[in-house]
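Chain entry —
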Amino acid sequence: MRQLAVVTGGAGFIGSHLTDALVGRGWDVAIVDDLSTGSRKNVSPGATLHVVDIRKPAAAALIRKLKPHAVFHLGAQVSVTESLKRPATDAETNLLATTNLLEASADAKVKRFVFASSAAVFGTLDMPLPMDESAPIAPESPYGITKYAGERFGAFYRSSRKLPFVALRFANVYGPRQSRVGEAGVVATFAKRMLAKQPVRVNGDGTQTRDFVYVGDVVEAMLAALDRPKAVGPFHVGTGVETSIADLFRRIAKETGYRKRAQKGPKDTNAVIRSALDARKAAGELAWKPAVGLDEGLRETIAWFREHP
């Protein structure tokens, strides 16, 4: 008998890749997406799209009706900058919707609830890198706050309602289908502008670092969490490697043949200066490790942008 998974945000960047993988495994997949940032072009022909806003009661009602085996909750407001401008909207989308979906999933006796959390829960801590799961939590944006609150609500439902919940804290995810919105949107921005021979801006001095993890590896981490329903987490999903924005510029320029110098932009005072996640816990408990190096992942990503200008 085929099993059913619900993927919120399944018409988006990461969610569409996850949906493809689940369909490839022989699963039935119901996508819940309001298409505010996702696209019908990303939807696998093997999945069913429900155009529903995750903030609305209809999303929770759908889970209660479908009674899926698994729920992958990726639908979210993903911009730190946007969360700073509209914190109430961020809380409604990233926290209230999450609690409603957790309640519905507990009612539907879902066998696995996988929550997409973020490295943003750590804020700008002066900590040795890469950070493991024991690092102090200190989010400094509404986005980071709501992601951590989602983790804690999930833990509550795990203990009080026996919902097999797990949180995966993503580093900076990049890859084909990526938009310019979100923490790793710089890859999409650089790639698109360089391929079009347009000016490219690097904010600040370019020494700020991020942990760039390929979307295919992130999908494998989610599938590993699905296959191990007793794993509690949270688990870090990253490479543990810092890459500066200046170095990223050089790598993408080399792959695209871009010869212009970077334009200097203002320093982003709200941005984390350095970031990298230690994923050894995921290696030990989920048997997951990143397999795609940055240069290989950038080649795949840039090749996709060449075909989809």
Q: What stands out?
A: The chain has a mean pLDDT of 95.
